[in-house]
Amino acid sequence: MTRSITEEFIFALTNPGSEKALKLESETMGLAWRSGYQRRGFVTFKADAPYTLDSLEQPLACARRLCLSLGKSATHEEARTRIHQAMGDREAVMIHHARFFDRKMQGVSDGDWFELPRLGQLVGTVVELGPDEFWAGLHRHGQGLSPYPAGDSGMAMPADSPSRAWLKLEEATRFFGLEFNRNDIVVELGCAPGGVVLALLNRGVSVIGVDPAKMAEVVVAAGISARDDAPADRPWFYHCRKPAALTSKRDLGQGVTWFMSDMNQSPEVVLNECARFCKMAPSIRGVLITLKLTDLLQVSAKTEWLASLAAMGFKTTRLQQLSVHHKEFALLGLK
Ligand SMILES: C[S@@+](CC[C@H](N)C(=O)[O-])C[C@H]1O[C@@H](n2cnc3c(N)ncnc32)[C@H](O)[C@@H]1O
Question: Which is deepest, 29, 49, 64, 273, by most CB within 10 Å?
Answer without folding.
Answer: 64
